[in-house]
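Weekly modeling sync, notes
Attendees: AB, CL, MP (scribe)

Item 1: holo prediction request
CL wants a bound-state model with 6-O-phosphono-beta-D-fructofuranose before deciding which constructs to order. AB pointed out that an apo prediction alone won't tell us much about the pocket. Agreed to run with the ligand included and paste results into these notes for async review.

Input as submitted:
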Amino acid sequence: MEREITFEEHTRELEPELARLLVTIADMTVEIRNEFPHRLMGVSGTNKYGEVVSELDAWVNDYICKKLAATGLVRKIYSEELVQPLLVREDAPFVVAMDPLDGSSNIVTNNPFGTIMGIYRKDLPVTGENLAASLYKLYGPITTLVYDAGKGVHEFVKHRKGAAKYCLLHEKMKIPEEGGVFGLGGEPLEWTPEFLRFAKDLVKVHKLKLRYCGAFVGDFSQILHKGGFFSYPSSVKNPKGKLRLFYEAQPMAKIFEDAGGATWSGSESLLKTKCDDVNVRTPLYFGNKKIIELLKGVKTVAHKEGE
Ligand code: F6P
Ligand code: MN
């Protein structure tokens, strides 16, 4: 039997401080997952976006913040669930931005959800080109972790063949050349007519199959493995879409572009998007390069009625 390569071994080739931070993040998984069955229903309030924060969202956010702080490696933490960033330790090397529990409306239905994190050396706001590393965890029927620290995109699975560790599943991932599936969030009749037509062409011309799971991490994982297209687009009600540039789009854009895909904000790559507001939302479009090239000619940005 071939020996498994663990996450800890795989990250050893990185700068030691970054490797230690990544391993600490990976090691949080067991306690996080163990907590899920105990916090399925509770609501803890609303966040800075006015969205419902489940008890699990709040617990995971607090847990990750405490563990990150204890490493001594994190200067500042930006989180979708924190009103103000947490200043942890002024002389520490890394700044973390995260969506601690992405897709939390899937908790009650027992569909997938996950954690998204971006690790920077500079303070935010900076573009995604400044990411030292990105990762996401997908808490599905199995737990996977995908990371990218500038040396390729690698996927790990938790607890394989009895090893109580993340073990390597795919090294240097590349999305398939020809797209396979697509997922679109939001309300189709609120999109621009041009984007609606583009969406229909995904079926008619590109022969993609519809797969939408309602958690960005889950939808992202589908196109990372199968190729295709995912978007939570601009709409008349929400011209900037729903997802957040710094907590969600930017870290995932690094992974996706490094795996050979392309991203788009409506005007540029999501890795190049500049914005001074760390809480800003952005329309987002992830896909095979060919599909994103076609999208560039499409009017995707909707406007509020009367504006
Ligand atoms: O973080 C926002 C989020 O939960 C994403 O994970 C997901 O893509 C989206 O919202 C789902 O939104 P909707 O409920 O509108 O389909
Ligand atoms: Mn989210």
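Recorded for review: The mean pLDDT is 96.
Action items: CL to compare against the apo run; MP to circulate these notes.
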